[in-house]
Amino acid sequence: MAGFGEIVQKAFYLGVGLASYASEKAGGKIAELRSQVQKLADEMVAKGEMTTEEARRFVEDMMKQAQQPTETPPEKTASSEPRRIEILEEEEQTVKEAKGENVDQLRQQVLELQEELKRLQRD
User: Fold this and answer.
1) Positive or negative CA dihedral for 86, 92, 94, 97?
2) What DSSP element (H or E) covers 69?
3) Could you give phi then psi for residue 31, rounded to 5 degrees?
4) Cβ distance 2 to 11 under 8 Å?
5) DSSP E strands, 1-123
6) Cα angle vertex 32, ends 28, 36, to 5°?
């Protein structure tokens, strides 16, 4: 059985890894967004719909808006109680998976018995 310290360490590394991954993904999305906004601004300048100075401000404003955090709706806010995380050992997971398979087998047997009962009632 893994010690509590090892579990805490793994949870910490998982959090750091997730934060790093999210940061990389966000950076890629922002770069992609900047490219698309710049392309739109260039097209509008080419059509004469805005000046180059207006296009530059447009791109800057759009990027500022994209980087601002979005507000969560009131009904989506987190409760004051922390979310519970359940850590299962491998044996517990295997038992739960076996129970899930057993339930599926029992459901299949019930369906087969229901079909046979219907067939017998017709005869």
Assistant:
1) negative
2) none
3) -65, -40
4) no
5) none
6) 170
Q: Which residue has the tokens 């940061």?
A: 23
Q: What is the pLDDT of residues 48-91, one digit of tens each?
A: 888 888 888 888 888 888 777 766 555 555 567 888 877 766 66
d(CA 113, CA 119): 10
pTM: 0.40
Domain limits of the chain? 8-69, 89-123
Mean of all residue pLDDT scores within the chain:
78
Six token digits for residue 62: 């759009």
**Structure tokens given for 66:** 């994209």
Q: Tell which residue, 38, 28, 89, 85, has the closest CA to residue 59.
A: 38
Question: Long-range contacts: 92-98, Cβ < 8 Å, 24+?
Answer: none
97: tokens are: 């998976």
